Automatic annotation (TrEMBL):
CDD domains: TM_PBP2. Keywords: Amino-acid transport, Cell membrane, Membrane, Transmembrane, Transmembrane helix, Transport. This is Amino acid ABC transporter permease. It is a multi-pass membrane protein.
């Protein structure tokens, strides 16, 4: 059994002199940077501590979290629909989804946000009603498309295009034999999608979606150009009044860093759970002794 035990043990890598020297250099550089940052009075760490839990900063943080969660939820649902349309055998439907994905992935999200905020310049009023009748109502686009609404619409529609490609890639990872087996059982298209394709595509979709969540949280800072008082805009409003630009930017950066670290932990767990290539090696193998039926050890 010694051969089995040695096979289960992880390989030991001999550390070289260069590795030890690299550790020493990195530690010295890190200590130098931390010392410079901690002792430089221009960073004004007392101001950072004062505004880190300021009411307006926390309110902006809550709005940032809301935009992230809402945009990701709506964008994922819309992206799922677009991915199904893209995989459709009906050419016009697949082409329509392809055009949508191309447009929203091919233009900057900042331009899209500004476009939706100024939608009333193109359509001052939107009419909702029954065609060829007088039954309907008009909606003032300028009143409807406020800053937060424009931010939510812009982020959602842009995220839907990226999620559609992520989900479509997950669909492509499902083996052709699985789909043929579902067809042989007489499953309908909806049942095949719900029972076969989506469950098997999840291992490829979930880790990439975790990256999108982190990217969306940081991407919400773009809505500050619309006047939305999210985290960055809240910091900007404060330093526009106090002229303490650097400390307030540090406050916003620290909150982005903290939230990104909090989101990275469940993402790493999901990646470990759904990774196709992860190989788990037991830390310690139990010794197994084979015995004969009479209890005599072999």
């Amino acid at each position: 059994m010694s051969g089995l035990d040695s096979a289960l043990k992880p390989r030991l890598k001999r550390r070289s002199t260069f590795e030890y020297v690299s550790w020493v250099v990195c530690i010295l550089v890190g200590i130098g940077i931390l010392s410079s940052v901690a002792t430089n009075p221009n960073f004004k760490w007392d101001v950072v501590a004062k505004y880190f839990t300021h009411e307006s900063i926390l309110r902006g943080l809550m709005l940032t979290i809301f935009l992230t969660v809402a945009s990701m939820a709506l964008g994922t649902l819309l992206g799922l629909g677009l991915a199904i349309m893209r995989a459709s055998t009906i050419k016009p439907i697949a082409a329509l989804a392809g055009v949508y994905i191309t447009i929203f992935r091919g233009t900057p999200v900042l331009v899209q946000l500004i476009f939706w905020f100024n939608l009333s310049a193109l359509y001052p009023n939107l009419s909702i009603g029954i065609p060829f009748t007088d039954i309907g109502t008009a909606i003032d686009t300028n009143a409807l498309m406020g800053p937060i609404t424009a931010a939510l619409v812009g982020l959602t529609l842009n995220e839907a295009a990226y999620m559609a490609e992520i989900i479509r890639g997950g669909f492509s990872s499902v083996g052709k034999g699985q789909i043929e087996a579902a067809d042989s059982l007489g499953m309908s298209g909806a049942m095949k999608m719900r029972k076969v394709i989506i469950p098997q595509a999840m291992p490829s979709i979930i880790p990439a979606t975790g990256n999108q969540v982190i990217g969306m949280f940081k991407g919400t800072s773009l809505v500050s150009v619309l006047g939305v008082a999210e985290l960055l805009q809240s910091a900007q409003l404060i330093y526009a009044r106090t002229y303490e630009t650097i400390p307030l930017l540090i406050v916003a950066s620290l909150w982005y860093l903290v939230m990104t670290m909090l989101l990275s932990y469940p993402q790493s767990k999901l990646e470990q759970k759904y990774s196709h290539t992860s190989v788990r090696v037991p830390r310690r193998a139990r010794k197994v002794t084979l015995t004969a039926p009479e209890g005599i050890a072999r």
